[in-house]
Write a structure and sequence with these properties.
The chain has 424 residues and is mainly beta. It is built from 1 helix and 27 strands. The strands form 4 sheets. Strands 14, 15, 16, 17, 24, 25, 26 and 27 form an 8-stranded mixed beta sheet that branches. Strands 1, 2, 3, 10, 11, 12 and 13 form a 7-stranded mixed beta sheet that branches. Strands 4, 5, 6, 7, 8 and 9 form a 6-stranded antiparallel beta sheet that branches.
Length: 424
């Protein structure tokens, strides 16, 4: 898959993974021929990668920077030649970004990331062996020369089943006179705003008061509405391989309970389709990342079913990029249906991700395998929906039985009355 969004000023490339902030900081100080600094950077980064195994399943893995990082190949750059910041780490992995400049500004141009699946610690049982290279065009606002670019916040960049993650970034290309600039150019996410203290997707939830004093008059909280249903899909080549319609709401219990509706209008879908494993990753405006993993199981010699096996959730404070919570549960066995059909459940369902995070689903319709003509196949409905159908059937049957009893009693009574009349 291609990149999902533009590169927000330089390294604003958030967290798109499910296990976060375990990486080492990287500091690179590139010198010119006179031993003066010409390119400086200090940042943190890591990568979430989806890869295919020998059994044709797809697995998610996290690649962190090791403490032993080199920066061979980094180049100062000049008016006619791009500057290059390049690092190498681990078992054959590398990452680089080049910078170009005008008379007054500099900006990033391309990011090149190479990961090596021969690293069996990170990529156990990988089907494809050897280095894999991803090149992404960077869209970045120009930074004034002599300014150092700073971004403590986080954002992410997704391309070809790789999520690149960057935070706590300080960088300056084309450093003049060997002196790092004292003036900072901040990313938009670091700029103070008058925005509310909670993300706008977080619904206010009333908490119990712990004081004994008379509370000040308050307005009753507005009831939390059900989330809007989103329509998501994945493609393999030019063919749709996964369809999902679902409304999603997170229930997060940390310092106080939070209900967060996932907004389909700001949510992008990514992931991977396989013969026996499929992964759908949803990113809601860099505040919430949810991953659903489906697998196929044999239920008989001739029949197979798919089911939901794993769910990953990462919740961020989009105002400062800090992690509110993250969780993973790989022990589900839900939403099962025969291969070649779809699964539907209109009623609310709850997925327990951890002690602190739940996902509520509404109007769910999912088909992660064997999609034909971009349409859902026949749906197997959940028991919750079946109960709704069963209740009126049972009530109707009870009423019919009651009517039958009344009619029968009436007929018997009429016969007795007629028999008595005949004996007179």
């Amino acid at each position: 898959m291609g990149p999902r969004r533009a590169f927000v000023p330089l390294f604003l490339l958030l967290l798109g993974t499910f296990v976060f902030f375990q990486s080492d900081a990287v500091e690179v100080d590139v010198k010119d021929g006179t031993n003066a600094t010409c390119l400086y950077a200090n940042w943190m980064m890591k990568f979430l990668i989806t890869y295919e195994t020998n059994s044709s399943d797809y697995k998610n893995t996290t690649l962190n920077l090791s403490s032993n990082v080199t920066h061979d190949g980094s180049v100062c750059g000049n008016d006619t030649k791009a500057a290059l910041l390049a690092v190498q780490f681990g078992e054959g992995h590398s990452w680089s970004v080049n910078f170009t400049k005008t008379n007054e500004t500099y900006q990033a141009d391309f990011i090149t990331f190479t990961y090596n699946t021969n690293d069996t610690t990170v990529f156990p049982d990988a089907k494809r062996k050897g280095p894999v290279t991803i090149v992404v065009k960077v869209t970045m606002q120009p930074v004034q020369l002599n300014n150092v670019f700073v971004c403590h916040n986080t954002d992410f960049l997704e391309a070809e089943s790789v999520t690149q993650i960057f935070w706590n970034v300080t960088v300056q290309a084309f450093v003049q006179n060997g002196t790092i600039g004292k003036k900072e150019s901040r990313c938009h996410a670091d700029t103070p705003t008058s925005a509310p203290t909670v993300p706008p997707t977080v619904a206010n939830v009333t908490t119990a008061s712990t004081t004994t004093a008379s509370p000040a008059p308050t307005t009753a909280p507005k009831p939390v509405e059900n989330p809007e249903t989103g329509n998501y899909s994945l493609k393999s080549g030019n063919k749709t391989c996964l369809l999902a319609n679902v409304g999603l709401q997170l229930n997060v219990s940390q310092d106080k309970p939070l209900l967060i509706n996932i907004n389909p209008k700001t949510t992008s879908a990514d992931g991977a389709c396989g013969n026996t494993t499929a992964t759908l990753k949803l990113n809601d405006g860099n505040s919430t990342l949810i991953g659903f993993t489906f697998v196929v199981k044999n239920v008989s010699k001739t029949a197979q079913k798919f089911y939901l096996k794993e769910v990953n959730v990462t919740l961020l404070n989009h105002l400062n990029g800090s992690v509110i919570s993250n969780a993973d549960n790989s022990n589900f066995s839900k939403w099962d249906a025969f291969l070649g059909t779809s699964y539907m459940c209109q009623k609310e369902q709850t997925l327990e991700i951890s002690d602190n995070i739940q996902i509520h689903t509404f109007n769910l319709w999912i088909q992660p395998f064997l999609v034909e003509e971009n349409k859902f196949s026949t749906a197997q409905e959940c028991s919750l929906d079946d109960d709704d159908i069963l209740i009126p059937i049972v009530v109707g049957a009870a009423l019919a039985g009651l009517i039958a009893i009344i009619v029968l009693a009436y007929v018997i009574g009429r016969r007795k009355s007629y028999a008595g009349y005949q004996t007179l």
